[in-house]
Task: structure prediction
Amino acid sequence: VRTRFGADQSTWFVEIILFALIVIGIIAFSTWIFGVIGQREHEIRARTEQLRALHEAALALTTELNISAVLQKVVDLARELANARYGALGVLSEDGVIEQFITSGLEPSERERMGTPPVGKGILGILANEGKSVRVSDIETHPRSSGFPPNHPSMKTFMGVPINSKGKVIGNLYLVDKRSPGSPDGVPLEFNDRDQQILEMFATQAAIAIENAQLYRQTQQLAVFEERERFGMDLHDGIIQSIYAVGLMLEDTQHRIESVVPDAEHGISRAIHGLNEVIRDIRNYILDLRPQRFQGRDLSAGVEELVRDLRANSFLDVQFVANGFDQSGISPEHTVEILHVVQEALTNIRKHARATTVKISLDRDGEALSVVIEDNGVGLDLEAADHSLGNGLHNMRERAKNLAGNIDFHANPDGGTTIQLHIPQKV
Result:
């Protein structure tokens, strides 16, 4: 009986062990299965977030007219999706220098303290010159690192991709310091393959936005060239022929003046009348050449048109302040003169300043009028500008004199230029 009981007990013990092993196996298998399912769910959620962000970027391309706002949206969404502390997007000029620089994650005060944007050397030069994506685990120890300028925030991990258009690098998009979702203020993490794939897709969106902006500029330039050609033909066929006819009349009068004085007087009168007609025609042509926004608009409306045009044709963040501005007493002729000064200043900023922001202010103190234009670009070398072959600054000074005012150019301490047109009396 004891032997049988011992044998039964041993069998029972083995069965318990087998059952326990089966339970453990089921639990382990279930844990693995649920882990795989959880991982797949996480990947699906991440992919959904990625598609949502790409959809927002694509939507911005079709609904937002301001190209700077589109590119800002692209870099903001890319930074958010990769959970990076900082992000930036640089647009390259024809000679490969960063001409527009858009940041994400920096406070405005931090951005101002950094001064001028990078020019595309160091690690950024790999993106611009070699046209390939880069991931760096430690920026400071990388052999291509050129260091950080003063007041630049500390950064460690880096991932950047080139923005390509038709086989040419036209910009770069990069993120810095990947953060862990659980501890956003901890040690920066390295970027992975998935982060790079996401950033490369956003670079494609940025390329589309930049290409659209460049196409719009080319269309505008073509319209200007066609208008100039039409104007030249009209001058040749109309005004120049009229002046030539008046010249012939004066030549004929010169021959008559010694012998037939009454006829000469009549010829001179006809020539004077013909010249007055030509002057009238020239004035009409000039009025036709003026931008439509300058006709029948007050000063604030004209500046607003110039601001909208600058936003549409550049990557600049343009602010216009004219709260409670008094338009009374400003004649249409003087309004056009002031608008030409503003137009010339904005053109110079777009072409040469490498700025990211521009602020235009209109102010009125009694009869005095003030127009202030500020940018955060590389600054203006007045001595070099005065000796340049261009007529921009000279024309602006001449227009200020015509308005019985003065115009000053100042280099800002933190970079950039301030232009102030001051007209002390009612215009």
Q: What stands out?
A: The longest strand covers residues 168-178. Strands lie at 84-92, 98-104, 134-136, 158-165, 168-178, 317-321, 357-365, 368-375, 406-411, 417-423.
